[in-house]
Amino acid sequence: MWKSMTNKIKKIFRLLLALSLTFLVLVFAPRVQAQDVDFDITALDIVADVEASGDVHYQEIYTYDVNYFNGMRVNKDYGGHTLTNYKVGILNSETGQVDYLKESNNQTDNTFSYVDNGREGTFTVYRRTEDQKVKLVLEYTLDGVITNYNDTAEFNQKIVGSAIDERLDVTARINLPGKVANKEDFRAWGHGPSNGQVYPKTENNQSYIEVEVPSNPSNQFVEVHAIFPTSLTPNNTNVVAENKKENIIETENAQVEADRKAHQKNQLILLSIAAVFALLGLPMTVFLYFFYFRARKKANPQPVHVPDHVYSLPDDVSPAVMAAAVLRPEPNSDDFSATILDLARKKYIHLNEIKKEKRGFLNFGTDETLEISLNPQAPSRDLLQKHEQYVLDYLTPEEGQSQTLEDISERISHHKSYRKQQNSYWTRFKNNAAVKGERLFGPKPKIINALFALCVLGIVMTVIATFLSLVSFWPQMGWQVWVAIMIWNLANILALIVLMVLVWKKPPMTTQQDKMTKEWQGFANMLEDVGQMDMRQVASLPLWDEYLVYAVSLGVADKVIDAMNKTYGAEELETLSMPGTFYSNPFYINQMLRNSVSENIVSAAPKPSSYSGSNSGGFGGGFSGGSSGGFGGGSGAGGF
């Protein structure tokens, strides 16, 4: 009996021991968590070499901005052609050479695999990456891309497919195997986004097609259609025995004309809608007021009370994210400047004012500019948010450790590649912060944009309607009618302006959004009125250094600087992140920094996207709508 009980006790003890060990393993064992895949494809640069055989050899460079991923994937829709001679590599940023990868199906790091399903080929690159920029190089040849007709040779391909879920800059150069002597025989057209440009060019005995599409939208193909003499592809076996040149030119010119008419039609439709709005006048304005107040009440039935002055940061977010959340739809140049100051405060960069010789005719003496130096002992870059990293990249000199804002301006003016690079950093900063701001604030009611658009439309068309009525009917109307029309339309315009101010200052928002907005407004009010307070009682000096960064985005930096200069001595201010002069005179932030940054951003920006269907004849110009039927529309790229 005792032996039986002893055995049972041993079994229970063993069971408890096993459970205890299992518990300890579960609690104290290192936890492995899957990291979220996060990357952007920011650019695609293509070089295509047309061969005398009619085959085309491609080199495509995909620029990935990676937080984390396991690898990259590129699909090539080869449209019935045969894909051969492929190579995959990574562009070495230090040597400028391509480090080619080995093809393998074992999915080990720094290898790639290729799968062909008969319609498209899929390249899968296995390369686990964190916090890096990766330039993926894909090289391959497609046979029979060029079609030789009796009177012309044709290239017709979607060089960028519609399966890329990223907004990216696209450049392409399609080299012909020789020089086209007669301009009339060399034409090129582009199809895709309206801001795309395509030009047939000949330089140094080499004819080529140049394509550029800044910020090509996600899932938007880029198609190139070109013709050139068959003498350049004499060994081409893809031959069609018919005359095609004039038909191609007429078809493309018809598309250009259709785009022009569609553009005019859209303008006419907008004008008609605006005219109807102007005729409705005050009744429509009254309806918009009703719609606005009803939307506000529905979104926030019980508004939260927040004090007029808030004495600490309402939330631990960056100035750019704060601005995108509660101040404006997306960050502006002031928020970029605020981020620069924040990088200085966080000791990633040093700011110094320096004197430089004035340049140009009749410019004598010296001028002041802002020098930005990288801090060799800066904290880890990984501690910065993505949009802050883009600002740091924007400020990083191509050579050395420092540069001035004037240096950046000069490079933007004289170097196209640098201009594109700086605009890319600015755009990615703006987009990333805008997304974070939207996530923080929550979705904004679509009614806001609709109300703004209708108000602006109403004002413009009321002015037009007033002018037309006076010009058309002035001889028949008495002064009483003229006065009545003016009063009616001026009242309508004033009412619409007031409504726009209301929508801007107090848009419809949820209770939480209303609370967040009021808290940041209260913080801005405190900074605005800080000159009437005892700064030492409100916050410590390092906190005021941090608050100054937000004051730049909130538009009250001069008030904070004046108050700091009056409250603290020069020795105290010298202990902060910037030179003491920055805290003694608003000029250094308002003029030297903000104005220079704003000018550089504007200078680097490409021309605004607009209707550009002006490539009549195929001699160069804007993209057309529609498609010329080129293959390759299913191509795409991504990561995993």
Global mean pLDDT: 82
Distance between the termini: 64 Å
Largest sheet: 12 strands, mixed
Number of strands: 19
* Low-confidence blocks of residues: 19-33, 360-366
Structural class: alpha+beta
* Cα gyration radius (Å): 32 Å
Fraction in beta strands? 15-25%
Indicate the percent of residues in helices. 40-55%
Question: Domains counted in the coordinates: how many?
Answer: 3
Give the overall shape.
globular
Number of helices: 17
What does the model show?
The model is unreliable at 19-33 and 360-366 (pLDDT under 50). By secondary structure, this protein is of the alpha+beta class. Helices cover 43% and strands 24% of the residues. The N and C termini lie far apart (64 Å). It has three domains: 38-242, Immunoglobulin-like; 243-278 and 446-506, no CATH class; 319-444 and 508-604, no CATH class. Strands 1, 2, 3, 4, 5, 6, 7, 10, 12, 13, 18 and 19 form a twelve-stranded mixed β-sheet that branches. Strands 8-9-14-11 form a four-stranded antiparallel β-sheet, covered by helices on one side. Strands 15-16-17 form a three-stranded antiparallel β-sheet. The chain has 17 helices and 19 strands. Helix 2 packs across helix 9. The longest helix is centred in the middle third of the chain and has 36 residues, at 245-280. Keywords: Membrane, Signal, Transmembrane, Transmembrane helix. This is DUF2207 domain-containing protein. Residues 1-34 form the signal peptide.
Task: Name the features.
Immunoglobulin-like; 4-stranded antiparallel β-sheet; alpha+beta; 12-stranded mixed β-sheet; 3 domains
